[in-house]
Amino acid sequence: MTTQHPPVQNAxxxxxxxxxxxxxxxxxEPVVAGRSPARIAWNRIRRDKVxxxxxxxxxxxIVIALLAPVLTALTGWGPxxxxxxxxxxxxxxxxxxxxxxxxxxxxxGVEPGTGYDLFARVVHGLRTSLLVGFASAVLSxxxxxxxxxxxxxxxxxxxxxxxxxxxxMLAFPxxxxxxxxxxxxxxxxxxxxxxxTDENLRLLVLVLNIAVFAWAYTARLVRGQVLSLRERExxxxxxxxxxxxxHILFRQLLPNLWAPILISFALxxxxxxxxxxxxxxxxxxxxxxxxxxxxxxxxxxxxxxxDPMYLFIPGVxLLVLVLxxxxxxxxxxxxxxxxxxxx
Length: 343
Hints:
Layout (H helix, E strand, L loop, with lengths): L36 H11 L1 H18 L1 H8 L11 E2 L5 E2 L22 H37 L1 H16 L2 H15 L10 H14 L2 H15 L3 H8 L4 H9 L4 H24 L11 H8 L7 H28 L8
Antiparallel strand pairs: 1-2
Helix pairs in contact: 1-13, 2-4, 2-13, 3-4, 4-5, 4-7, 4-8, 4-11, 5-8, 6-7, 8-11, 11-12, 11-13, 12-13
């Protein structure tokens, strides 16, 4: 009489080669692997074709912006390098040829009046727009997260004061106040030999002005989440173990807020890019001849009837960029929604 031994599994929980699973009813069941929330969110994004296309387009724009000096060096034209032969003085310095002077030498044509290569100005303007959009979004998100954590967890007079400040900031007509404040601050910070403001300093002022009026949105969102999380058992356990306030805020509460913070950041970037373009269009952002999409649109509006491509190209690119960022933000929000089906 022989003794039947149960099948032996290896360290991974699977049957070794040649083993007979008939004697073990659990051997045929598949091994269920746990997935992190980030992995689940990424799987949802990959299945959402619209979000995936928006992600690819956004990455493409970012890569083009990072490689702008390389791309313009390959074409041989800088953003403020005029080509007098590409414009015709007999027609008011409009581009020679059709479609705004598009040719093998100028991939997107040239600017009327100046002869600047439009491709070089577009890719360098993209760097400016993305820099201002992402930098202001990062700054406003950091300030909003800290303020929201402090207001939601502290309560009492701290919450009351910060909440009233948020209400005041949300009530401001953001664009109007930025238009009023930006030139005042820039004129007070004249740093170059021509009595103007250094371009990097102008961008810094622009980033700060946009972030000052944008942080309250993130703060209000974070405060609402913290008000719910601070009553959870893991926070009570941290208090019982004599954990400090900083530990509870940044080690217990903050890791549970990354989803709404990421959503807020993803939606803030396109809004800030649009704001920056609007400010440059109105003449209080990036100053010509430095490239920027808003200033390009402002200049192109004067030549629309004679050279529509000058307005069409940067206008469509700005639309595609902002649309891709908005769709990506919506997709990230849906992917991180805990109420959605776990697929």
